[in-house]
Please model this.
Amino acid sequence: MNKENIYVFLFDGYSDWEIAYLAPELKKSEKTDLKYFTIDGSDITSAGGLKISPDLSIKQLNLDDISVLILPGGSAWEDKSIKGIDKLVETLHSNNKTIAGICGATVFLGQKGYLDNVKHTSNALDYLKYMAPEYKGEKLYQPDLSVTDKNIITANGISPIEFAREVFKEVKLKNETDIEKWFQLFKNGIWSE
Model:
């Protein structure tokens, strides 16, 4: 069985709660291989103060192995202090690999034009337009918590559970019924057999 190789980009101050629901499910699945990387492979500290040693640096990635790139949010996207990720995202996008961005990461995707031709969401349309003046995808903006279109997954920062559900669907982590059961449990506290 071929595994889906999922890589999560981490940086100082990343919003740790935004990947808190998807990471355990992806990590425990036999269908996926989950890895974390930073630009230079150095340890980072999340917004919640969690100190993390990544698996890899960006230079150690094999682009052919990447199925999904996950970009968590954080204010570093808004102040444009993240350097060195552009070429990776551009290469993955041009090869139709899935790129999933939540909260502040949607600002980066908007700045770089990745949201101009796909349905997408963010924290709010006004937020996206303000933070990414280069953004030209207003007509395709969806006021939803999470949206998948083509190879782009986007989510509002208050929707880590919806974000996780979209990633799970993309990699076919479980069948649709079981993904929905998972969603109902974590979102609404509804347990069903």
